[in-house]
Amino acid sequence: MHKVVILGARFAGSAVSYWINKLFSQHEITVTVVDQWTVMTYRPSLVMAAAGHPIIADQWHIAMKRRCEKAGQHFVRDSIFRIDPQQQHVYLASHPPLPYDTLFVATGSDQGWRTIPGLGPEHGGVCEDYLARETGDRVQQPFHSLVIAIGPLLQSPADRPHLVGSLDAPGLEVSFLLDAWFRKQRRRDHVSITVVTPAPVPGEFLGPKSQEILATELCKRKINLVTDAHYERVSHSAIYFTDRKPLSSEKMIWVPPYPGSRLARISGIDDGYGWIPVDQYGAHRTWPNIYAVGDISTTALPKIGHMAMLQARTAVHHFYAVQQRKRPSPLRPYVLHVGWLGYGRGLLTLSDWLYGGSHELVHVGISSALAKACFNHAYKIFSGWLPLMP
């Protein structure tokens, strides 16, 4: 029987698991999902925890192991050590080598805290539950200056599309949510907020209309913006740049740099920069029985959940088409994103601008925020296996 192994059970891995269950019967293939955690932390909601509500971090854990096993898939909780594409084995920390016929790698990119001298998770973050919880506690303490900094994306210079920042969406959302929260606490006049990004504009991946709206919102809310940041090092209370004066701050919140995947490097399946090179179907360019889905793939830009789900659908449908000797459909990327603006409002963007297109649909308002809230809660209720999948 054909052995399918899925590495990772977050946005991308969960979507791969869903589509395989949807397209294949259990007598056709065996499916094993590997992740070091039995639950998934739903990261899009961590910005709420960081913005003064730390308890929220504990409310967004989704039981992925239970979801997979309910569908007849085997779940292995373990750390992934190495992939051997020649022997078609995955080496785990505490289980025997796991053989595969087809492999889906959805382990994501590593967080490159140490790629900037002096930077570490102790500076504050928002992309993991424990960091969002700690940040939510810290902002309740008295202080007068806050910097929200976006790390660089360390991809190959040849990659297209090419982004400078790792992902500024969580940083911008936290800045807007904290602005509203500080005003509610009557502290806003005593706290300066600065957003720092290596990108030339806020919302680098969205499109010109959304970028203009974000810049206007930042200005209107008196949130300072520093663009084109080239980081040199970070101390306990300041960020140092290669081309401008240091920026001092009592508190920091970081979206860390993303340097690709150590797993991909160790396994010899990366592009030389830690990312897995794939074709338009998500299949590895050298090892076609390996699919890379989500943040670990060279085509997963921007690194948002919706893109990971699009990639998962394309990759699994390609795998299915190959098995059925049918013609597969390539990935047709587009950006669908809703960001919190605070005060019950959201910014919705539907755009192909990042991929050379000219279409950008934008909406600002309460309905956009409601749409985001509905998606978040639906994702939690259905454990990532939504009735209608992107």
Describe, in plain words, how this protein is organized in 3D:
By secondary structure, the protein is an alpha/beta fold. It folds into two domains: 2-36 and 78-110 and 260-324, FAD/NAD(P)-binding domain; 113-257, FAD/NAD(P)-binding domain (3-Layer(bba) Sandwich). The chain is built from nine helices and 20 strands. The chain has helices at residues 11-23, 46-50, 64-70, 129-138, 169-184, 208-220, 262-267, 305-324, 366-381, and strands at 2-7, 29-35, 39-41, 61-63, 74-77, 80-84, 89-92, 98-99, 102-105, 145-150, 192-196, 224-226, 231-234, 238-241, 247-248, 251-255, 290-292, 335-342, 345-351, 360-365. A five-stranded parallel beta sheet has the order 5-2-1-9-17, covered by helices on one side. Strands 12-11-10-16 form a four-stranded parallel beta sheet. α1 runs parallel beside α8.
Task: Outline the fold blueprint.
Layout: E1 2-7, H1 11-23, E2 29-35, E3 39-41, H2 46-50, E4 61-63, H3 64-70, E5 74-77, E6 80-84, E7 89-92, E8 98-99, E9 102-105, H4 129-138, E10 145-150, H5 169-184, E11 192-196, H6 208-220, E12 224-226, E13 231-234, E14 238-241, E15 247-248, E16 251-255, H7 262-267, E17 290-292, H8 305-324, E18 335-342, E19 345-351, E20 360-365, H9 366-381
Parallel strand pairs: 1-2, 1-9, 2-5, 9-17, 10-11, 10-16, 11-12
Antiparallel strand pairs: 3-4, 6-7, 7-8, 13-14, 14-15, 18-19, 19-20
Main beta sheet strand tally, sense and closure: 5 strands, parallel
| SS-based class | alpha/beta
Percent of residues in beta strands? 15-25%
The CATH homology group name of the largest domain: FAD/NAD(P)-binding domain
CATH class of the largest domain: Alpha Beta
**What general outline do the C-alpha atoms trace?**
globular
Rg estimate, integer Å: 21 Å
